[in-house]
TrEMBL record, chain A:
It comes from the Eukaryota. Residues 46-62, 216-227, 240-249, 257-280 have a biased composition (Basic and acidic residues). One of its GO terms (biological process) is maturation of SSU-rRNA. This is Nop14-like protein. GO terms for cellular component: Noc4p-Nop14p complex; small-subunit processome. The keyword rRNA processing applies. It is found in: Nucleus, Nucleolus. Its main location: nucleus. Pfam families: Nop14. Residues 178-209 form a coiled coil. It comes from Rhizoclosmatium globosum. Keywords: Coiled coil, Nucleus, Ribosome biogenesis, rRNA processing. Residues 34-62, 132-167, 211-449 are annotated as: Disordered. InterPro entries: Nop14.
UniProtKB/TrEMBL annotation, chain B:
Belongs to the CBF/MAK21 family. The lineage of its organism: Eukaryota, Fungi, Fungi incertae sedis, Chytridiomycota, Chytridiomycota incertae sedis. One of its GO terms (biological process) is ribosome biogenesis. Transmembrane segments: none annotated. Residues 228-261 are annotated as: Disordered. Residues 320-471 form the CCAAT-binding factor domain. InterPro entries: CCAAT-binding_factor, Noc4. Residues 237-251 have a biased composition (Acidic residues). This is CBF-domain-containing protein. GO terms for cellular component: Noc4p-Nop14p complex; small-subunit processome. Signal peptide: none annotated.
Amino acid sequence: MKQQLRSIDKSASANNPFERQFARLKHDVLGRKVKGVEGKPMAQRKKAEENRKKTLKVEMAKKNRVGGLVDRRFGENNPNLSMEDKLMERFMREQKGKSSRNSSLFNLEEEDLTHMGQSISGMDDYSLESGLQRVEDEEGNIDRDTVKYSHFGGFDDDPDPDRKKTKSEIMAEVIAKSKFHKHERQKLNEEVQQLGEEVDENLDDLKSLLLGTGGAKKEEAKPERPWRKPLTSQEEDYDNFIREMRGDARAAPTNRLKTEEEKAFEEKEKLEKMEAERLARMNGPVKSGKKRNAQADDLDDDFGFAQTMPVKKRGGRSKKGGDEGEEDDEDEEEEDDDPRGRNAMPLTYNKDGMLVNKEVFMMKRKPKKGETDEDDGGVDNEEEDDDEEEEYDEDDEDDEDDEEEDGEDGEDDENGNVEAEDDLEEDDAVELNGEEAVDVSADEDDEEEEIDEAAVAAQRAEAQATIPYTFAAPTDHAELLAYVDHLNPTDQAIVIHRIRVLYNAKLGGLNKSKLETLLRVLFDHLQYLTRKSPPDLDTVNALSKHLHELCVQFPQIAAEICIRRIKKLHATIQTAVDKSSALPWLDDIVLLKLVGTVFSVSDFEHVVGTRAQLLMAEFLVMCPATNGRQALSGIVLCQVLKEFVKTSKRYIPEVISFLHSLLDALHPSSSTNKNLSITSLSAPPMDLDLKTLLAKPATTTKKVEQHPSFKTDAFKAALLATVTNVIGQFVRIYSDASGFIEIFTPLLEKLEGYATLFQTANKKKSSKPSEALTNAFKVNIDIVKGLLASGKLKRKPLLLQKRKAMAIRTFVPKFQEHYSMDRRFDPNRERAKVKKDEAEYKKEFKGAMRELRKDGKFIARQRLEERKEKDAVYKKKMDRIMGDLANLEGAMRGYERMNKK
Amino acid sequence: MATDITAIAKEALASKKGLPGIAQLLDLMLLDQNRKHSTIHAAAAAASHVFSKLIERGDFRVVPTASEPEKKVLAWLKDHLEVYTDRLADLLSCDEPALQTFSVDCFLKITRAESTALALAEKNSAEWTFGNSTYLKFVRCLCSKKSSSASTTDLTRHVLGLLNSWDDLKLYFFRNLEKVCKTHAPQIDISIVFDILSQLQPFEELTGDNWVTAEGLGAKKAASIAASKKRKRPANDDEFDDDNDEDDEEDSSKIPPQSKGAHKRACSEAWLGYLKIPMTVEIYKKVLLVIHKTVIPQLTQPTLLIDFLTDSYNAGGAISLLALNGLFTLIHEHNLDYPDFYTKLYTLLDETLLSVKYRSRFFRLLELFLSSAYLPSYLVAAFAKRLSRLALRASPSAIIIVIPFVYNLLKRHPAVITTIHRFDVEDVTDENTDCFIMSENDPAKCRALESSLWELQTMTQHYLPSVSALARVFQDPLTKPAYEIEDFLDLSYDTLFELEAKKPMPEEIPMAPVTRDVRGELFFDGVISF
């Protein structure tokens, strides 16, 4: 009855309109549910009060109390957990705590193992199995009980099958199972150990079998147990052997070998990164979008020389470049280049089981042979050789990769520019993907071998053998000359290579400075070689790679040397009275060419490259082509400049101007310069051997003697052909320049003038122009014409001032579909998030304040109640006392009155 | 020897009997290889002393009452004076600078004596006189061609010092020069005349103090000034030094003419006479270089130079460029109306323009000529286009001038911006080809306005970072103030190198990756074969 009443009361209170409160909605929309419209303040208040009573009041009661009992049992205060769950959880925790507390997790001894609820310690080890075996009868049938209890689901036969197992039971079973398996494993281990012991016993036999000696000893030792006896020497050996084995470095886990795809991808990425950096440098400083307003002092600031902003940017970029440089450096440090492409491991077999590095393997022997032939007591040498060889080996692997990449990088560059070489690019790509490090080296070795065979192999071997293996690092050019002057180009390269290996910068010490000196000395040597008469260009070619690598290793020094030379050349132009004598000789040209290959001259601004280009342009302008030598060195300079701008496609007006003037000068009807004009077109062009034609004269005589061939028509025809070829090269480079048509149309006119000249000469028969010359003209005129035609198609009027149109301000109100007050429509995500967080914080803060206030009120109320209670008690007490006293007094008065009466 | 010479001179002065000694002196003055310069010097000095004294004494005066022997003596003396001046002229063209300058002094001494004598003869007339006969000879000799070995620097300096300090000498120099130019044009050494003419200071104020002949008449003050002038008296001239002091001052009332107009007229006539002589190219250039600064302000009628300048302007090449300056001065300050000036200016933009020495001078002027905002846009466009076309084959120092120049043009003439930004592509009939006609010399017909400045766009790819950075201004909004062309004019390869050298060495120098010569490519093959 009472319950019934209570339920009624509950439902009534839930629907009691007096218990509910409604907020008035201004714009009510049907079907929309708005939070917080209906509230039950009384219920809420009551709930909050209850909560406080449970928490705050308890705390208050506990305040200033010391000691007491805290029930920390798991789940004791959680009313949501059933008793069973609580117990289960407690058990789990207990187990966990035990196992973690105790390191002997796998200690079987301390734990009591059970099987089917019984401790197995009491059982015989194999009693279970034996027990099972026992129940088999003679025919091998298993009795019913066994089947029932232990076969499929045999553990299931509880007295009460319906009862679900408790979790604790399941857990216990799991544990038991795992312990059983552990035991099994242990047993297996023991067996293995036993086997090992047996092997130990028989080791002597085996050893003797293997070594083929000590048979007698073995027999001697046989009858006795080996470990009962004091250790024999052999056993000691064995122990030592074992100890050593233990001491040997174990195979450490290495990084996972990369798959082909990954390798290829990484290489591709690296190449792309390098190329991107180069492009960034090439394009130069990019103006940022932010522009300050023009100011009065803009004039000078914006002028290229004193640009401050770009310089800053350059700094940033150079940092990037720096990274790359470092990389290079590292590469270089590792790199200890090996032009002969030997692989690291001498004994490496390929998939087919063939020895991959036959040469390397043989190589180790070769020098030794030579030495034994040569001198008998070369022991020291030999050791050194070995060391050196090891160095090779260590470094070579990296080398190969690096060089591989570098090589392909360079090729890529080329291919990027010359469209015609697309197929080559494809080849490269194939190579890139399909190559395996080992295969590459194998290929290379094959190549190497072929070359070796082609060149007289025996002779070389002999020569190599005669070259010493160690050198003191040369401190000046004279020392180097003492080493290499008598050698042929390849051997000179070998000497340099050996010096570089010997003083590898990685080996530390003073090697770095020694190599730096080597670089300086090599530059001197280069100068020496190119100034020699006749100049030794083969050696220059052989050494160029070393020079390049050393330059990359020490860019600062290389730059310093080159800048000094460039400065000197510039000074000779400026001071020369007769400008024609200031023209560059072969040595200068070789140096400038080296600058073009060694430094990243495609950069927008390069400390060496820019100066070199400026110098060459100055040469072309200041030294007009009035005689054969000037014309020749000028045209060679044009070719060197072509290498400089091949990738960056920078425009050099001086080259075009020079080509114009040379074409004019060579023309038979040239009025200005009779020195160069061709008299007869019939002479076939001669090969221009720069070695003889441009070699710097040994004596610095004032009068530059002219090579006799400069006057010949063959020379002039060769010049003419070269000029047309150079035009053909530059026309390709500049085909994308916006002023392309303007640049090359006048040149084309001049070329066509020559072409008509050829035609008229052709008709005469007597002075038929040579085949080579007409061909060169035909080909190059076609190229120029074709590119000009396509350039005309591409030509568009300039639109340099085109800017993104400014948006007109709009006054149309922004309409947001699905607009909601609660959502934020800020397009700036970060700002929206900040606003959201702020709002949330504010809300939470308010809530917390409100709660605290309510807490305070609750506490005050509580205190008041307590006080009231106390007061009531006190009052009651006092009343009682006073009542008693009054009674007493009344009684006394009554008594007195009674007495009075 | 020296004592002999003085003795002879004294004797000649003392009595008529000594006069034949003069012939001896003149013989001693003959330039001979084995004769010492000091002897010649002494003889010349003595002879000049004797002659000046004789002239001052009035021995040269033609007296109608003279007897026959006196007339003979006079004739003889006149002949020998002639011989003497011839000898002095020889000295003037010899290759010893000391003798050259000394002969100048001797000439002047005779001139002064003559003037004094003339003044004394015409004592009654208030007219100031100048004995010009010897001086005319001097000027003629001075301006005539010398032997190739003779250096004229000392001589010109000495003469210039004299002319600049004595107004009458200058005046008569101008007058005589004009005469000489008319009569002896082929013999004139144009370079020395130019040196003197161009360095003569213009007349500032004519006080009457600076008259060498007036000094001869005895102005004490003038004498003291003369003493202070070192150049006036060479050191070895001591023995005659006291002569000036002995001159008693008399008749200082005769003040020479001070009309500035006369001087100026003389000057301009001398210049005009000089400019009529055919000149070598170097001198021509030199004259044109200074014409607007030194010549035009000194002329009474600068417009008389029009013919000269127009001819020069039409000559073509560097001469035209140089004539521009003088022509501009005439147009600007003297109201010269020059038809087709801009057309001719446009034709000056030829292939050599950007490489000639006077490039910066030309651009300075061109900036001035094109600074007017009222020029038609076709004209400005033509200039911009032709300059940028020329820049395609120019050195960086020239390109660095052209880019800001064209930028300034675009700033000043917004209509020309179509050459870097074509708003209306449809208007252009044939947009693919450049419709600009480079060979057309008339800016109105070259169709530059329909073209674009692709050439300057190419310069953004220039190998020099400073140039390519500068060329990018055309891509930015044209909000920058116009460039000061003067800042860009004086660049050369040398200065560009210096600017490069000033750049700091970067921390890391980008290097090219080491390439493997897979295809057997050599670093340097050294043979160009066919």
